[in-house]
Structures are given as structure tokens and as C-alpha cells.
């Protein structure tokens, strides 16, 4: 049957830098592409894509391996978590270089903003891979299934194009055409053993090294991939290996019932991908209350597709047929959805509404994958990489510190489930104990990771354990779709944590600002209160009028200036600085500036501070003025009293010195003056009190008087002495006047001696003073004799008055003309010798005529004599006196006073 070329669909999805297509490539085994893309992965949705296996020489090995270092990861999950987050570079798996030479490196083309790079219409015409747009499946298990659809506009369209090799999205190996022998399915060759990786070991690999590794890997892939013209062509109908599921086969059906013409690998790939995409779609349209059971048939009317796009874009697609019955209504609904997709910048080449309405499974899966890329994976970007590279790098970073996990791709690296457990442990160590896992229980570990992710984190269970564990090479797109949910969940968790941290930081900063504001207002209010209270106290302060009170207030004022005011100055400066810091802190976080209440503003503080300064100046002036007034008052008070006192003393002195008249009148006047002395003593005490206040006020000079307290006290003493002396003099004159047997010269001599020894001016002598006075007059007695004379003269008292002293002297010096007195006088002249010489008489001041007369009448001494008197005439006064004295008085010559010698004046010439 002649087949007309049908519309072909080519949907290319480039995960990485899309690069330019090989246009005008030369034929031959050694053809080289002029420009090699970094990772050109094309997903062709025209035929089932067989699982590709790596050639032995194309095994993936990591490039630029860093030196193996022992793992420093701690068994504790928390330590591992802190280590993994610092991982800065990932591993990129790349195949070994192909024998085919690679072109030199050229700068890669600019990456497109869209995660799904598509081929435009011109590219489509130059491309050799054309696929049948219609369902012309030769399904052996469905004999009644037509080889083509009876489309009204395409009755004669048949498959006249052979499929060519395309790149699988997750494989770096070429896919062979159906006519060429397929390589045997084998598991990828294992990577060489690696040491325990730590974050530090992985992070040594720089970004330029990764970039160079990607370029080398891209060149190797392109060089080892056969060209489209190298693949032999054959019709679809004759190609036994090109199988597909019937358009209405459900993903829930047993794979064995999907068609025996499908290989088991194809069945698994189709089922897993369709099941995963169905679950993804259901998670997106769940808010609409609808579900997809069969991805192929349930989208045919376009309603669920519109729901999906509205949920993904959060936009309304407008009016559409809510209950389409006719095929044209379904076409319109699907057209609305496809036009909206195109309006979002997602290019879809040769996808028509009939493909969706007719249930073209590959087209539908390709469309869903495009939407997944656009709305789920495209926003994953790390360090300028594509979405796939960014997602892979994220997985590598998070699992780098786990020894048993090595993520190199989105396929075989996830079979054992440890990678999922590591992602859980690094983000939610509270959910899983990675160190306690049984690393050999792959299904159990993966099932636990899936369950925890779904129940605890809310990640939809797009995959089942058997979709990953029980297959040699899990479907890359399904895994990327599911892992993208993990990425978004944990990224959102990190965003929430970061947001929470920012909120906490903001609250802490705001708390600090609030505390600073509160402290400012509290301290400012307290300072203003203290200032106002101090001003009020100064205004109400009163003085007692004393210097002590004024000085106390002055001292308090000085203490205020030295202490409290300085504290206030410092507090005022600190408050101004604090307010500036508050404004700066709020400005740093771009928050509204803080303005304190008007009553607590700096302007209010400056006003109150000005009032304080003014009150302080007035207070100081008042204190100084008060102290000056008090000092002047003290000066005047002292001067007035001192001047009056000095005037009274001068008056008394003049009165004493001007006394005249009879002794009795003078004595009476002096006695009146003496009676006025006690009031002067009391008045002087008042002057002393004022003088003490002046000393306390540090008054050293007084312009109101020339007198001082010491001068006045001294002058008062002089007046008292004058009065006492005058009284004593007048008393003595009265006594002397009664003593008629004393000459005035003797009386004056006795009075002078008495006044000299009257040291206390009491007009009396003590026993010691009495003895000294007599000795000065030449009267010398023994100690016992002096004591007897004192008691006899004082009449048994402790002092001898002037009158008693004069009477004693009169008795001693008065000439009594008795034999005893004369004999005693000769004895005193002879100094106790039994004879007297002319020289003794002359020393006693006896006149010469008297001496001559006595020498003529006194007989010469013939007894023992003194050595110094030998050679001199010696006269016996004792025999002379015996001849003159009667016999009955001769005994008296031996003891004139009954055995006690009579008191006589020594060498004074008295007889």
C-alpha cells in the first residue's frame, strides 16, 4: 500500500547546553561534527526507545579524581549534615574517550533560558529522523487493530520512514537502528573501587575542571554516535523490534497483556514512565478534585489537560467545552491547552490536537515530560548549570559524605535506596538513623525512604520500590521527576528554615532595637526627672542665717558639681549616642526610623539642661552672696562687741589711774571697780563666741575694728591686775599707817618684797613664798623654825596676809633695847664666833666713832680663835655683855628664847 509521508513529530529535549545541530555533516565513518554540544540529549517520541547499554570501552568513570583520602565523616548524622552542606563541587560521570579523534575545544554555544531546547521547523526539514505521526502499529497481539487510523484528512498516510538512532535522555551511548544488530543487554561496567569520600576530598575539584570534563565527555559522545545516514533504513512494518503499546492500554494492566511483541525492557520502560507521569499529573490536579486513571485516554477530551495547565501556571485558560461529546469539541479543548503551552515559550513541533485526542502514547508521554521539565525541573539551576546538571550536582553535594553512596546519574546510582536514605538523613536526621541501616536490604531501605518522604515530608509517591530496585536501569525521566520533588521539598524546607532564621534574626535585631529604645526611654525619663527634682530643691532651699548652714549648702553644691552633675553629663552623652545607634541599626535593616516621644526627645533634654545650667548659676550666686553677707554680719557683730569692751576697759583703767583723795575713799572706789569685773568676763565670753564663728568662717581680716579677742582678753587681765594691785596697795597703806614704829623706807622695802613673791596677786603668801620673802630680807631659819614661824604668823592657816607679814617683820626688826636683843646682835655681827673683830664691826656698817668707842670698852679675847682672825685684835663681847647684864639674865645669854635663838636680821645694820 502506497504510503504518503505523514506529519512527523520530533520533540528534542536537551538537558544541558543545547548547541547547534549537525548541519551539513559529511558522510563516512570518520565524519566529525564541527561543533560538539556539551550534552546533547534528544528524546524522540515516535518509537519505543530501547534501553541502551554501555560498550565496554565506554564505561563511565569520573574525571579528574582527587587523591583518595580517608573519610573524616562522623558516625553521627548531625556531624555528617554539617559536613555535607559545605560541599562545593560535584562529580560528573563521563565515558572513556572513544578511539575516534575528537575535535579541538571550542567555546560552547549560549545556553537557552528554557530547560527544554527544541528544534525549530527549519531544523526539522534538515533532520534525518522522521517519525510517523499516526498510529500505524503492527501489533501482533491485536489482529483487529488497524494498521492506520481512519482519519478523515489522512487516509493514505503510511509509514515510509525508517527510525534512526537517537540519544536517550539519560544514556551517553548511541541507539542503533532497528536494522542493525542490537548489542546484548548488559549491565554497565562497574566503576573502579573508590575510597570513602568526604566533603573536603570532593570539594578539591574546581569548576573549570568540571567544565573541561563535560566538554570532553560531550565530544566523546558525539564522536562515538553513528550518524543518521549510517543507520540502514527499513519500513516499520518489516522491523520486528519496533513495537508499541496499543493506544488504550492501561498502566495498571499486567505487562504480559500489553502485547507479546514488546520486549520486557520496553514494557517496563513504558509502564514505569506512564505510571510516574500519571501520579505526577494527579498530584498537580488534585486541588480540582479530579484524577487520571489512564494517561492515554483520560486526556483525549482536553479537560484534564486544561486543569493541569491551569494548576501549573495558576492562570485561567478561558472558556472551553466542559462536556465535550463531539470530536471537534475535544479538538478545540486540546487546541486551547496546546496554544497556551506555546504561549509560554515552549516549542512543540508537529504536535497536533489529534495526537492527544487519538491517544498517541509516545506523544502524550513526551508532552507530559515537557511540562515536567518546564514546570518542575527547569527552575533547578546550580552554578550556571542546566537543570539536569544542577539536580545531579545537588544530589552529589548532599550525599558526598556518605561512604556507601555515589550518585553519578539518575539511573543505576539509586538502585540500592541508600541515596534516598542519605538525602533523608542529611535534611531530616530526626526521621532516620542512617548508620543503623542494613545496607544490604535495598528494598527495605528504599521502601522506608519512600514512606518517610511521603508521610513525614509530603513528597508524593510517584515511584514504587520495584520501579527502581527490580530493574537493571531505572527510567531516568521517572527518577528525575521524583527526585525533583525531593529537591523542591527540601529546598522549600531550607527556604522555610532560612526564612525562619531570617525572621529569628530580624526578631533578634528588632528585639535588640526594642530593648535599646526601651532603655533610651527609661533612662531619659529618669534623667529628666532627676534634673527637674534638683531644680525644684534649689528653688525651695532656705538658709538658716549661719555660716555653718551656708557652708554646708555650699559643700553640697560643690559635691553635686563634682559627682552627680558629671554622671548626668555622661548619661546625657550616652543617651545621645544610644539614640544614634538605634537610628543606625534601624536604617541598616531599612526599617522606619525611631523617633522618641516629644517629652523624651533630645530637644526636651537640651531645654531641661539649659534650665539646670541657669538654676545652677543662680544657686551658686545665692550661696556666695549668702556667705558674704554672713561673714560681713560676723565681722560687724565682733567689731561692735570688741569696740564696746575696749571702751569699758579704757574707762576702768583711767578711773584707777586717776584716783585721789583719802585712802579710805580711794579704797571704796576701787572696790566698786573690782565688783564690775565679773560682767566684763561674761561679755568677753560672748566676744569669744563671735570670734569662734569668725574663725569657722575663715575671717582673717576685719575692717570694722582693730581689736582681736586675744588683745581684749589681755587688756582685761591688765585691768584686773591693776584693780587688785590698787586694792592691795590701799590695804597696805591702811596697815602701814597703823605701824608707827617702822620707817617709811622699811615699810616700802617690806611691801616691795611681799608684792614680788605674791605671784598669784592674791595679796597673800604661801609657806614657800613666805620663806623666800624672809630669806630675801636676810632672815634665815632652819626648816623647822620656818614652819613654826609660818604657823604662828598665819594663825594656823595656809597663807599669810600682807598685814600678818608686816607685823612679823615689825616684830623682827623693831628695836626693843633688851640685853637679849643686843647680845644676839653681837653674835650675828661676829657670825657666831665668841669674839668680834674690828673688821666684823665695819662689815656690819657700824659707824667708825661707835667702833672706836666699843674697842675701847670691850676687853680683849684671850681664848681660841679662827685662823683667819689671827694677827688681828679680838674682843670678847660675851664677857662685856655679862658685866652689863644682871646675873639673873645671864642664862638668857645662852638661850635667849628658851633654847631657841631669837630671829635677827643678818648684816642689815639694824639694832
Automatic annotation (TrEMBL):
<feature type="compositionally biased region" description="Low complexity">
    <location>
        <begin position="70"/>
        <end position="83"/>
    </location>
</feature>
<feature type="domain" description="EF-hand">
    <location>
        <begin position="745"/>
        <end position="780"/>
    </location>
</feature>
<feature type="compositionally biased region" description="Basic residues">
    <location>
        <begin position="125"/>
        <end position="139"/>
    </location>
</feature>
<feature type="compositionally biased region" description="Polar residues">
    <location>
        <begin position="899"/>
        <end position="911"/>
    </location>
</feature>
<dbReference type="InterPro" id="IPR002048">
    <property type="entry name" value="EF_hand_dom"/>
</dbReference>
<dbReference type="InterPro" id="IPR036872">
    <property type="entry name" value="CH_dom_sf"/>
</dbReference>
<comment type="similarity">
    <text>Belongs to the alpha-actinin family.</text>
</comment>
<dbReference type="Pfam" id="PF08726">
    <property type="entry name" value="EFhand_Ca_insen"/>
</dbReference>
<feature type="compositionally biased region" description="Polar residues">
    <location>
        <begin position="217"/>
        <end position="226"/>
    </location>
</feature>
<dbReference type="InterPro" id="IPR014837">
    <property type="entry name" value="EF-hand_Ca_insen"/>
</dbReference>
<keyword id="KW-0009">Actin-binding</keyword>
<dbReference type="GO" id="GO:0110085">
    <property type="term" value="C:mitotic actomyosin contractile ring"/>
</dbReference>
<keyword id="KW-0677">Repeat</keyword>
<feature type="domain" description="Calponin-homology (CH)">
    <location>
        <begin position="385"/>
        <end position="491"/>
    </location>
</feature>
<feature type="region of interest" description="Disordered">
    <location>
        <begin position="888"/>
        <end position="911"/>
    </location>
</feature>
<dbReference type="GO" id="GO:0051015">
    <property type="term" value="F:actin filament binding"/>
</dbReference>
<dbReference type="GO" id="GO:0051764">
    <property type="term" value="P:actin crosslink formation"/>
</dbReference>
<feature type="region of interest" description="Disordered">
    <location>
        <begin position="14"/>
        <end position="259"/>
    </location>
</feature>
<feature type="compositionally biased region" description="Basic residues">
    <location>
        <begin position="145"/>
        <end position="161"/>
    </location>
</feature>
<dbReference type="InterPro" id="IPR001589">
    <property type="entry name" value="Actinin_actin-bd_CS"/>
</dbReference>
<dbReference type="GO" id="GO:0051017">
    <property type="term" value="P:actin filament bundle assembly"/>
</dbReference>
<dbReference type="InterPro" id="IPR001715">
    <property type="entry name" value="CH_dom"/>
</dbReference>
<protein>
    <submittedName>
        <fullName>Putative alpha-sarcomeric (F-actin cross linking protein) protein</fullName>
    </submittedName>
</protein>
<feature type="compositionally biased region" description="Pro residues">
    <location>
        <begin position="181"/>
        <end position="193"/>
    </location>
</feature>
<keyword id="KW-0106">Calcium</keyword>
<dbReference type="InterPro" id="IPR011992">
    <property type="entry name" value="EF-hand-dom_pair"/>
</dbReference>
<dbReference type="GO" id="GO:0032432">
    <property type="term" value="C:actin filament bundle"/>
</dbReference>
<feature type="compositionally biased region" description="Low complexity">
    <location>
        <begin position="169"/>
        <end position="180"/>
    </location>
</feature>
<dbReference type="GO" id="GO:0005509">
    <property type="term" value="F:calcium ion binding"/>
</dbReference>
<feature type="compositionally biased region" description="Basic and acidic residues">
    <location>
        <begin position="227"/>
        <end position="236"/>
    </location>
</feature>
<dbReference type="Pfam" id="PF00307">
    <property type="entry name" value="CH"/>
</dbReference>
<feature type="domain" description="Calponin-homology (CH)">
    <location>
        <begin position="271"/>
        <end position="376"/>
    </location>
</feature>
<feature type="compositionally biased region" description="Pro residues">
    <location>
        <begin position="96"/>
        <end position="107"/>
    </location>
</feature>
<dbReference type="InterPro" id="IPR018247">
    <property type="entry name" value="EF_Hand_1_Ca_BS"/>
</dbReference>
<dbReference type="GO" id="GO:0071520">
    <property type="term" value="P:actomyosin contractile ring assembly actin filament bundle convergence"/>
</dbReference>
